[in-house]
Amino acid sequence: xxxxxxxxxxxxxxxxxxxxxxxxxxxxxxxxxxxxxxxxxxxxxxxxxxxxxxxxxxxxxxxxxxxxxxxxxxxxxxxxxxxxxxxxxxxxxxxxxxxxxxxxxxxxxxxxxxxxxxxxxxxxxxxxxxxxxxxxxxxxxxxxxxxxxxxxxxxxxxxxxxxxxxxxxxxxxxxxxxxxxxxxxxxxxxxxxxxxxxxxxxxxxxxxxxxxxxxxxxxxxxxxxxxxxxxxxxxxxxxxxxxxxxxxxxxxxxxxxxxxxxxxxxxxxxxxxxxxxxxxxxxxxxxxxxxxxxxxxxxxxxxxxxxxxxxxxxxxxxxxxxxxxxxxxxxxxxxxxxxxxxxxxxxxxxxxxxxxxxxxxxxxxxxxxxxxxxxxxxxxxxxxxxxxxxxxxxxxxxxxxxxxxxxxxxxxxxxxxxxxxxxxx
Length: 425
Prior knowledge:
With 425 residues, the protein is an alpha/beta fold. It is built from 16 helices and seven strands. The strands form two sheets. It has a five-stranded parallel beta sheet with strand order 2-3-1-4-5, with helices on both faces.
């Protein structure tokens, strides 16, 4: 049986490119964005289990239609994250809900994996892990070239579910791609100019970027993730595509296949045509284009750059992205109020903020102030603002501010660390 591969990241970060590179490899069967609802239904089932146990940790049910959360600032969100993290992907699925899950799967898969839609009924199974395995079998059957060694999918926003896949499937491996959040936002804003359904809010996007960074920091310090997780920066992928493709192949234990970089041959089974690329700035791409990596520098307004630097400047440095406008906690004069207010009220097709401008601004100012303060707050406040205490400690040390709690150290020269993530002992 083929081993399971999983690619994730946030939208507009290069997940399509790396997913399609793997899809072209002779030893892979791969699909784009077909099974996100499985994770969302799993999350809802976890919450239902917690509530049935009598615990008030998550007082309200979470419907499968709810967006994946960023988990910041609210105690209930933090407890939701902890409940999901502690759950097992092998928990039962109520098959009475199968018609609803199948409908959600069809609505998701129709966009990038339409050729799989007629067969989604084959995923019906009694546990979430078995549903996922059935999905992998489906991809192998309809996307495989002979007998693939690896079968997988690319899904967005799902970084927190990587440990569930790794635990449920002992040979599974995951790839996460990270991109400069300013480039991500620029791509999102540009796409929104032509397609209003793609419009999103800067604050929500950046919070999800910070969440991705926080989870990666934690995963890369876990012994259980050694040799199971490959992290690559988009900028490095497009600058040295062949080197990164070879590293990917080494990670999966397969030989390098030049077809991974032959974009003229990137066939899209969903559209029955050659894939034209997924750039917001070009209608088609014939080859991996390094120039797209820095397009944000000339596209993004200075106020937007200041806002992103304010929201994630310290976090960006963990992945080698330097804030242009400082991005380092300091005086209130550094707070880009005009950009915050303007972007907060902009039209967006989805958002994960509180809906209260004053509250959200205050929360972000408080988070920034905690990084600047020499006083260590209590653990609950740290988790609400940074998700994990280890993330807070690393950010403080990146900024040169002393804290008392040591951070787990891991060898950053390992083969699955293709860039110098700044972990501090």
